[in-house]
Amino acid sequence: MEHRISQYPEFGRLSLTPGHSPQPADSFDTAFGIVQSEVNAARCFGCHSTTPAQPGVHCQRCHGEGVDHPKEPSIKRTKAVALCAECHRSPNREYASPEPEIEDPASIRFAPVGLTASKCYTASKGALSCVTCHDPHTDAKPSMSYDARCESCHAKETRKSCPRETNCARCHMPRSSPIPLLTFTDHRIR
Ligand code: HEC
Ligand code: HEC
Ligand code: HEC
Ligand code: HEC
Ligand code: HEC
Ligand code: HEC
User: Fold this and answer.
1) Which numbered ligand comes closest to the C-alpha of 138?
2) pLDDT tens, 31-41?
3) What is the per-residue pLDDT for 68?
4) d(CA 135, CA 131)
5) Whose CA is nearest to atom 22 of ligand 3?
Protein backbone atom coordinates (compact mmCIF):
# COMPACT_ATOMS: atom_id res chain seq x y z
CA MET A 1 0.00 0.00 0.00
CA GLU A 2 1.40 3.39 -0.97
CA HIS A 3 -0.19 5.69 1.58
CA ARG A 4 -2.01 8.74 0.19
CA ILE A 5 -0.39 10.92 2.84
CA SER A 6 3.38 11.51 2.97
CA GLN A 7 5.64 13.35 5.35
CA TYR A 8 7.55 16.24 3.71
CA PRO A 9 10.70 16.64 5.82
CA GLU A 10 11.66 19.98 4.24
CA PHE A 11 8.41 21.50 5.48
CA GLY A 12 7.92 19.27 8.52
CA ARG A 13 4.36 18.42 7.56
CA LEU A 14 2.08 15.81 6.08
CA SER A 15 0.40 16.22 2.72
CA LEU A 16 -0.89 14.31 -0.28
CA THR A 17 1.56 11.83 -1.87
CA PRO A 18 2.49 12.79 -5.46
CA GLY A 19 0.29 11.00 -7.96
CA HIS A 20 -2.64 10.53 -5.55
CA SER A 21 -6.02 12.13 -6.15
CA PRO A 22 -7.20 14.83 -3.76
CA GLN A 23 -10.81 13.69 -4.41
CA PRO A 24 -12.61 11.68 -1.70
CA ALA A 25 -12.02 7.95 -2.20
CA ASP A 26 -14.78 5.75 -3.61
CA SER A 27 -14.06 2.76 -1.38
CA PHE A 28 -12.74 2.03 2.10
CA ASP A 29 -9.63 0.32 0.71
CA THR A 30 -8.58 3.16 -1.58
CA ALA A 31 -9.14 5.75 1.18
CA PHE A 32 -5.76 4.72 2.57
CA GLY A 33 -3.89 5.02 -0.70
CA ILE A 34 -3.00 3.02 -3.75
CA VAL A 35 -2.84 -0.73 -3.34
CA GLN A 36 0.35 -1.76 -5.11
CA SER A 37 0.63 -4.91 -7.15
CA GLU A 38 3.37 -7.27 -6.05
CA VAL A 39 5.37 -6.31 -9.13
CA ASN A 40 5.13 -2.58 -8.38
CA ALA A 41 5.99 -3.01 -4.72
CA ALA A 42 9.07 -4.99 -5.74
CA ARG A 43 10.07 -2.06 -7.96
CA CYS A 44 10.10 0.29 -4.93
CA PHE A 45 12.69 -1.96 -3.33
CA GLY A 46 14.64 -2.07 -6.59
CA CYS A 47 15.44 1.64 -6.23
CA HIS A 48 15.18 2.23 -2.47
CA SER A 49 17.19 -0.68 -1.13
CA THR A 50 20.37 -2.62 -1.75
CA THR A 51 18.75 -5.97 -1.11
CA PRO A 52 15.16 -6.41 0.10
CA ALA A 53 16.63 -6.85 3.60
CA GLN A 54 18.96 -3.84 3.43
CA PRO A 55 17.19 -0.48 3.05
CA GLY A 56 19.04 2.37 1.37
CA VAL A 57 21.51 2.55 -1.49
CA HIS A 58 24.72 0.99 -0.17
CA CYS A 59 28.13 0.28 -1.67
CA GLN A 60 27.23 -3.05 -3.27
CA ARG A 61 24.27 -1.57 -5.14
CA CYS A 62 26.64 0.45 -7.32
CA HIS A 63 29.93 -1.43 -7.05
CA GLY A 64 28.95 -5.05 -6.66
CA GLU A 65 30.94 -7.12 -4.18
CA GLY A 66 34.49 -6.32 -3.06
CA VAL A 67 34.20 -2.54 -3.04
CA ASP A 68 36.52 -2.10 -0.05
CA HIS A 69 39.58 -3.16 -2.02
CA PRO A 70 39.12 -2.05 -5.61
CA LYS A 71 42.23 -2.74 -7.71
CA GLU A 72 41.27 -0.26 -10.38
CA PRO A 73 38.41 2.19 -10.77
CA SER A 74 35.38 -0.08 -10.73
CA ILE A 75 33.02 2.40 -12.36
CA LYS A 76 34.04 4.44 -15.38
CA ARG A 77 32.91 8.06 -15.14
CA THR A 78 31.33 7.87 -18.58
CA LYS A 79 29.19 4.94 -17.39
CA ALA A 80 27.93 6.82 -14.34
CA VAL A 81 24.96 8.45 -16.09
CA ALA A 82 23.55 5.04 -16.99
CA LEU A 83 24.20 3.77 -13.46
CA CYS A 84 22.48 6.75 -11.82
CA ALA A 85 19.64 6.55 -14.35
CA GLU A 86 18.82 3.02 -13.17
CA CYS A 87 16.97 4.82 -10.36
CA HIS A 88 16.86 8.51 -11.31
CA ARG A 89 15.41 7.40 -14.66
CA SER A 90 16.57 7.74 -18.22
CA PRO A 91 14.37 9.25 -20.92
CA ASN A 92 11.23 7.15 -21.35
CA ARG A 93 11.02 5.80 -24.90
CA GLU A 94 7.36 4.91 -24.43
CA TYR A 95 6.40 8.32 -23.07
CA ALA A 96 2.69 8.51 -23.85
CA SER A 97 1.81 12.18 -24.33
CA PRO A 98 1.45 14.60 -27.23
CA GLU A 99 4.18 16.81 -25.71
CA PRO A 100 7.73 15.48 -25.65
CA GLU A 101 8.79 14.22 -22.21
CA ILE A 102 11.48 16.89 -21.93
CA GLU A 103 8.84 19.66 -22.19
CA ASP A 104 6.78 18.23 -19.31
CA PRO A 105 7.55 20.37 -16.22
CA ALA A 106 7.33 17.23 -14.06
CA SER A 107 10.34 15.76 -15.90
CA ILE A 108 12.54 18.04 -13.80
CA ARG A 109 12.28 15.27 -11.21
CA PHE A 110 14.39 13.00 -13.42
CA ALA A 111 17.86 14.56 -13.59
CA PRO A 112 19.16 12.23 -16.35
CA VAL A 113 16.29 13.24 -18.67
CA GLY A 114 17.27 16.91 -18.47
CA LEU A 115 21.02 16.44 -18.39
CA THR A 116 21.18 14.20 -21.46
CA ALA A 117 19.11 16.79 -23.40
CA SER A 118 21.63 19.57 -22.58
CA LYS A 119 24.12 20.87 -25.10
CA CYS A 120 26.75 20.46 -22.38
CA TYR A 121 26.10 16.74 -22.53
CA THR A 122 25.49 16.20 -26.23
CA ALA A 123 28.38 18.41 -27.38
CA SER A 124 31.00 17.19 -24.92
CA LYS A 125 31.05 13.58 -26.17
CA GLY A 126 30.71 11.69 -22.91
CA ALA A 127 32.91 14.05 -20.85
CA LEU A 128 29.96 15.21 -18.74
CA SER A 129 28.61 12.79 -16.20
CA CYS A 130 26.63 12.91 -12.95
CA VAL A 131 29.89 12.51 -11.03
CA THR A 132 31.35 15.62 -12.68
CA CYS A 133 29.24 17.51 -10.15
CA HIS A 134 28.07 14.98 -7.53
CA ASP A 135 30.19 12.87 -5.22
CA PRO A 136 28.13 9.69 -5.02
CA HIS A 137 29.57 9.10 -1.52
CA THR A 138 28.15 12.19 0.19
CA ASP A 139 24.84 14.02 0.25
CA ALA A 140 24.36 16.87 -2.20
CA LYS A 141 24.58 20.20 -0.40
CA PRO A 142 22.41 22.95 -1.79
CA SER A 143 24.91 25.51 -0.53
CA MET A 144 27.82 24.06 -2.47
CA SER A 145 29.26 25.95 -5.43
CA TYR A 146 29.37 24.17 -8.79
CA ASP A 147 31.13 27.05 -10.56
CA ALA A 148 34.49 25.27 -10.77
CA ARG A 149 32.79 22.31 -12.49
CA CYS A 150 31.26 24.59 -15.11
CA GLU A 151 34.50 26.48 -15.58
CA SER A 152 36.44 23.30 -16.21
CA CYS A 153 34.73 23.43 -19.64
CA HIS A 154 33.64 27.08 -19.94
CA ALA A 155 36.69 29.20 -19.21
CA LYS A 156 36.01 32.87 -18.58
CA GLU A 157 37.90 33.89 -21.72
CA THR A 158 35.74 31.75 -23.98
CA ARG A 159 32.40 33.00 -22.64
CA LYS A 160 31.06 35.77 -24.79
CA SER A 161 27.71 36.99 -23.62
CA CYS A 162 27.32 35.70 -20.09
CA PRO A 163 26.51 38.59 -17.77
CA ARG A 164 27.77 37.25 -14.44
CA GLU A 165 30.71 35.37 -13.04
CA THR A 166 29.40 33.44 -10.06
CA ASN A 167 26.71 30.95 -9.11
CA CYS A 168 26.29 29.62 -12.61
CA ALA A 169 23.65 27.12 -11.46
CA ARG A 170 21.32 29.83 -10.14
CA CYS A 171 20.66 31.04 -13.69
CA HIS A 172 21.49 28.00 -15.83
CA MET A 173 20.07 25.27 -13.55
CA PRO A 174 17.20 27.04 -11.76
CA ARG A 175 15.18 25.27 -9.10
CA SER A 176 11.43 24.87 -9.39
CA SER A 177 8.55 23.06 -7.81
CA PRO A 178 6.17 21.44 -10.34
CA ILE A 179 5.03 18.97 -7.67
CA PRO A 180 3.66 20.66 -4.52
CA LEU A 181 6.11 20.63 -1.58
CA LEU A 182 8.95 19.16 -3.65
CA THR A 183 11.68 21.30 -5.21
CA PHE A 184 14.01 20.08 -7.92
CA THR A 185 16.93 21.42 -9.93
CA ASP A 186 16.62 21.78 -13.70
CA HIS A 187 19.40 19.57 -15.08
CA ARG A 188 18.73 20.70 -18.64
CA ILE A 189 21.54 23.23 -18.66
CA ARG A 190 20.80 26.04 -21.09
C1 HEC B 1 12.97 3.86 -10.81
C2 HEC B 1 13.39 3.95 -9.42
C3 HEC B 1 12.36 4.21 -8.35
C4 HEC B 1 11.21 3.49 -8.09
C5 HEC B 1 10.67 2.27 -8.86
C6 HEC B 1 10.62 4.09 -6.91
N7 HEC B 1 11.36 5.16 -6.49
FE8 HEC B 1 10.93 6.38 -4.91
N9 HEC B 1 12.49 7.62 -5.45
C10 HEC B 1 13.42 7.32 -6.42
C11 HEC B 1 14.38 8.40 -6.48
C12 HEC B 1 15.58 8.46 -7.41
C13 HEC B 1 13.98 9.37 -5.51
C14 HEC B 1 14.66 10.71 -5.20
C15 HEC B 1 14.35 11.73 -6.27
C16 HEC B 1 12.90 12.05 -6.37
O17 HEC B 1 12.29 12.46 -5.37
O18 HEC B 1 12.36 11.86 -7.46
C19 HEC B 1 12.77 8.83 -4.88
C20 HEC B 1 12.05 9.45 -3.85
C21 HEC B 1 11.08 8.83 -3.09
C22 HEC B 1 10.51 9.36 -1.89
C23 HEC B 1 10.86 10.70 -1.26
C24 HEC B 1 12.00 10.49 -0.30
C25 HEC B 1 12.39 11.74 0.43
O26 HEC B 1 13.21 11.60 1.36
O27 HEC B 1 11.95 12.84 0.07
C28 HEC B 1 9.59 8.45 -1.42
C29 HEC B 1 8.75 8.54 -0.16
C30 HEC B 1 9.57 7.34 -2.37
N31 HEC B 1 10.49 7.60 -3.38
C32 HEC B 1 8.77 6.21 -2.27
C33 HEC B 1 8.64 5.25 -3.25
C34 HEC B 1 7.63 4.19 -3.26
C35 HEC B 1 6.60 3.93 -2.16
C36 HEC B 1 7.82 3.48 -4.41
C37 HEC B 1 7.00 2.28 -4.96
C38 HEC B 1 5.57 2.51 -5.09
C39 HEC B 1 8.94 4.08 -5.12
N40 HEC B 1 9.40 5.14 -4.38
C41 HEC B 1 9.44 3.62 -6.31
C42 HEC B 1 13.46 6.20 -7.22
C43 HEC B 1 12.44 5.27 -7.33
C1 HEC C 1 25.22 5.63 -5.94
C2 HEC C 1 26.28 4.74 -6.39
C3 HEC C 1 27.45 4.51 -5.46
C4 HEC C 1 27.41 4.07 -4.16
C5 HEC C 1 26.19 3.76 -3.32
C6 HEC C 1 28.79 3.95 -3.74
N7 HEC C 1 29.63 4.31 -4.77
FE8 HEC C 1 31.69 4.29 -4.70
N9 HEC C 1 31.76 5.10 -6.59
C10 HEC C 1 30.65 5.35 -7.38
C11 HEC C 1 31.10 5.97 -8.63
C12 HEC C 1 30.21 6.42 -9.77
C13 HEC C 1 32.53 6.05 -8.54
C14 HEC C 1 33.47 6.65 -9.59
C15 HEC C 1 33.58 8.13 -9.20
C16 HEC C 1 34.47 8.95 -10.07
O17 HEC C 1 35.08 8.46 -11.03
O18 HEC C 1 34.57 10.15 -9.76
C19 HEC C 1 32.91 5.48 -7.25
C20 HEC C 1 34.21 5.37 -6.79
C21 HEC C 1 34.59 4.70 -5.63
C22 HEC C 1 35.95 4.40 -5.23
C23 HEC C 1 37.19 4.79 -6.01
C24 HEC C 1 37.73 3.58 -6.73
C25 HEC C 1 36.77 3.09 -7.74
O26 HEC C 1 36.29 1.96 -7.58
O27 HEC C 1 36.44 3.86 -8.67
C28 HEC C 1 35.89 3.71 -4.04
C29 HEC C 1 37.06 3.14 -3.22
C30 HEC C 1 34.48 3.62 -3.67
N31 HEC C 1 33.73 4.22 -4.67
C32 HEC C 1 34.01 3.01 -2.52
C33 HEC C 1 32.68 2.99 -2.11
C34 HEC C 1 32.22 2.49 -0.82
C35 HEC C 1 33.11 1.90 0.27
C36 HEC C 1 30.85 2.68 -0.80
C37 HEC C 1 29.88 2.40 0.35
C38 HEC C 1 30.17 3.10 1.59
C39 HEC C 1 30.47 3.24 -2.09
N40 HEC C 1 31.61 3.44 -2.84
C41 HEC C 1 29.17 3.52 -2.48
C42 HEC C 1 29.33 5.09 -7.06
C43 HEC C 1 28.87 4.66 -5.83
C1 HEC D 1 32.19 18.45 -19.64
C2 HEC D 1 32.17 19.83 -20.12
C3 HEC D 1 31.04 20.74 -19.68
C4 HEC D 1 30.65 21.06 -18.39
C5 HEC D 1 31.19 20.49 -17.08
C6 HEC D 1 29.62 22.07 -18.51
N7 HEC D 1 29.39 22.33 -19.85
FE8 HEC D 1 28.12 23.74 -20.59
N9 HEC D 1 28.55 23.15 -22.50
C10 HEC D 1 29.56 22.26 -22.84
C11 HEC D 1 29.65 22.20 -24.29
C12 HEC D 1 30.65 21.37 -25.10
C13 HEC D 1 28.63 23.07 -24.80
C14 HEC D 1 28.32 23.39 -26.25
C15 HEC D 1 29.18 24.55 -26.62
C16 HEC D 1 28.86 25.13 -27.96
O17 HEC D 1 27.96 24.64 -28.66
O18 HEC D 1 29.52 26.11 -28.30
C19 HEC D 1 27.98 23.66 -23.64
C20 HEC D 1 26.94 24.59 -23.71
C21 HEC D 1 26.50 25.36 -22.64
C22 HEC D 1 25.52 26.43 -22.69
C23 HEC D 1 24.78 26.88 -23.93
C24 HEC D 1 23.59 25.96 -24.03
C25 HEC D 1 22.74 26.13 -25.26
O26 HEC D 1 21.70 25.42 -25.30
O27 HEC D 1 23.09 26.86 -26.17
C28 HEC D 1 25.37 26.93 -21.43
C29 HEC D 1 24.45 28.05 -21.00
C30 HEC D 1 26.24 26.16 -20.57
N31 HEC D 1 26.90 25.23 -21.34
C32 HEC D 1 26.39 26.38 -19.21
C33 HEC D 1 27.02 25.50 -18.33
C34 HEC D 1 26.97 25.61 -16.89
C35 HEC D 1 26.27 26.71 -16.13
C36 HEC D 1 27.67 24.55 -16.38
C37 HEC D 1 27.83 24.15 -14.92
C38 HEC D 1 26.57 24.04 -14.14
C39 HEC D 1 28.19 23.79 -17.52
N40 HEC D 1 27.76 24.38 -18.66
C41 HEC D 1 28.98 22.66 -17.44
C42 HEC D 1 30.34 21.54 -21.98
C43 HEC D 1 30.24 21.54 -20.59
C1 HEC E 1 19.62 2.06 -6.44
C2 HEC E 1 19.00 3.32 -6.82
C3 HEC E 1 19.87 4.54 -6.96
C4 HEC E 1 21.02 4.69 -7.70
C5 HEC E 1 21.74 3.64 -8.56
C6 HEC E 1 21.41 6.08 -7.54
N7 HEC E 1 20.52 6.74 -6.73
FE8 HEC E 1 20.63 8.69 -6.15
N9 HEC E 1 18.99 8.44 -4.96
C10 HEC E 1 18.22 7.29 -4.90
C11 HEC E 1 17.09 7.51 -4.01
C12 HEC E 1 16.01 6.48 -3.67
C13 HEC E 1 17.22 8.83 -3.52
C14 HEC E 1 16.29 9.54 -2.53
C15 HEC E 1 16.70 9.22 -1.15
C16 HEC E 1 15.83 9.94 -0.13
O17 HEC E 1 15.52 11.11 -0.35
O18 HEC E 1 15.51 9.33 0.88
C19 HEC E 1 18.43 9.38 -4.15
C20 HEC E 1 18.91 10.66 -3.92
C21 HEC E 1 19.98 11.25 -4.62
C22 HEC E 1 20.42 12.62 -4.47
C23 HEC E 1 19.78 13.68 -3.59
C24 HEC E 1 19.96 13.36 -2.14
C25 HEC E 1 21.10 14.08 -1.54
O26 HEC E 1 20.87 15.07 -0.85
O27 HEC E 1 22.26 13.64 -1.76
C28 HEC E 1 21.48 12.81 -5.33
C29 HEC E 1 22.28 14.08 -5.56
C30 HEC E 1 21.70 11.54 -6.00
N31 HEC E 1 20.78 10.62 -5.53
C32 HEC E 1 22.68 11.34 -6.95
C33 HEC E 1 22.97 10.10 -7.52
C34 HEC E 1 24.07 9.85 -8.42
C35 HEC E 1 25.05 10.91 -8.89
C36 HEC E 1 24.02 8.54 -8.76
C37 HEC E 1 24.96 7.77 -9.67
C38 HEC E 1 26.38 7.80 -9.29
C39 HEC E 1 22.90 7.95 -8.06
N40 HEC E 1 22.28 8.93 -7.32
C41 HEC E 1 22.52 6.62 -8.16
C42 HEC E 1 18.45 6.11 -5.57
C43 HEC E 1 19.56 5.85 -6.36
C1 HEC F 1 22.75 36.22 -13.62
C2 HEC F 1 22.49 35.02 -14.39
C3 HEC F 1 23.70 34.25 -14.94
C4 HEC F 1 24.76 33.75 -14.22
C5 HEC F 1 25.03 33.86 -12.73
C6 HEC F 1 25.58 33.05 -15.18
N7 HEC F 1 25.03 33.12 -16.43
FE8 HEC F 1 25.74 32.25 -18.14
N9 HEC F 1 24.33 33.21 -19.25
C10 HEC F 1 23.29 33.97 -18.72
C11 HEC F 1 22.48 34.45 -19.83
C12 HEC F 1 21.23 35.32 -19.71
C13 HEC F 1 23.09 33.98 -21.01
C14 HEC F 1 22.63 34.22 -22.46
C15 HEC F 1 23.27 35.47 -22.96
C16 HEC F 1 22.88 35.75 -24.40
O17 HEC F 1 22.57 34.81 -25.13
O18 HEC F 1 22.91 36.91 -24.78
C19 HEC F 1 24.23 33.19 -20.62
C20 HEC F 1 25.06 32.51 -21.49
C21 HEC F 1 26.00 31.57 -21.11
C22 HEC F 1 26.72 30.67 -22.02
C23 HEC F 1 26.53 30.55 -23.53
C24 HEC F 1 26.99 31.78 -24.26
C25 HEC F 1 28.43 32.15 -24.04
O26 HEC F 1 28.68 33.26 -23.52
O27 HEC F 1 29.33 31.35 -24.33
C28 HEC F 1 27.58 29.93 -21.25
C29 HEC F 1 28.55 28.85 -21.73
C30 HEC F 1 27.41 30.36 -19.86
N31 HEC F 1 26.45 31.33 -19.82
C32 HEC F 1 28.11 29.84 -18.81
C33 HEC F 1 28.06 30.37 -17.51
C34 HEC F 1 28.95 29.99 -16.43
C35 HEC F 1 30.08 28.96 -16.57
C36 HEC F 1 28.59 30.70 -15.33
C37 HEC F 1 29.24 30.71 -13.95
C38 HEC F 1 30.70 30.98 -13.92
C39 HEC F 1 27.44 31.53 -15.70
N40 HEC F 1 27.17 31.30 -17.03
C41 HEC F 1 26.74 32.37 -14.84
C42 HEC F 1 23.04 34.19 -17.39
C43 HEC F 1 23.88 33.86 -16.33
C1 HEC G 1 26.78 20.43 -14.04
C2 HEC G 1 26.56 19.99 -12.69
C3 HEC G 1 25.59 18.86 -12.42
C4 HEC G 1 25.54 17.64 -13.06
C5 HEC G 1 26.40 17.14 -14.21
C6 HEC G 1 24.51 16.88 -12.39
N7 HEC G 1 23.97 17.62 -11.38
FE8 HEC G 1 22.53 16.99 -10.06
N9 HEC G 1 22.56 18.83 -9.16
C10 HEC G 1 23.34 19.90 -9.55
C11 HEC G 1 22.97 21.07 -8.79
C12 HEC G 1 23.57 22.47 -8.93
C13 HEC G 1 21.95 20.66 -7.89
C14 HEC G 1 21.20 21.52 -6.85
C15 HEC G 1 22.04 21.89 -5.67
C16 HEC G 1 22.33 20.73 -4.81
O17 HEC G 1 21.40 20.00 -4.42
O18 HEC G 1 23.52 20.54 -4.47
C19 HEC G 1 21.73 19.23 -8.14
C20 HEC G 1 20.81 18.44 -7.46
C21 HEC G 1 20.55 17.09 -7.73
C22 HEC G 1 19.60 16.25 -7.01
C23 HEC G 1 18.76 16.68 -5.80
C24 HEC G 1 17.33 16.98 -6.21
C25 HEC G 1 17.22 18.21 -7.08
O26 HEC G 1 16.70 18.10 -8.22
O27 HEC G 1 17.62 19.32 -6.63
C28 HEC G 1 19.62 15.02 -7.60
C29 HEC G 1 18.78 13.80 -7.23
C30 HEC G 1 20.60 15.08 -8.68
N31 HEC G 1 21.14 16.34 -8.74
C32 HEC G 1 20.90 14.01 -9.49
C33 HEC G 1 21.76 14.08 -10.59
C34 HEC G 1 21.97 12.98 -11.53
C35 HEC G 1 21.32 11.61 -11.45
C36 HEC G 1 22.87 13.44 -12.46
C37 HEC G 1 23.32 12.74 -13.73
C38 HEC G 1 22.26 12.44 -14.70
C39 HEC G 1 23.22 14.81 -12.09
N40 HEC G 1 22.51 15.15 -10.98
C41 HEC G 1 24.15 15.60 -12.77
C42 HEC G 1 24.32 19.89 -10.51
C43 HEC G 1 24.60 18.83 -11.37
Assistant:
1) 4
2) 999 989 999 98
3) 65
4) 6
5) 190
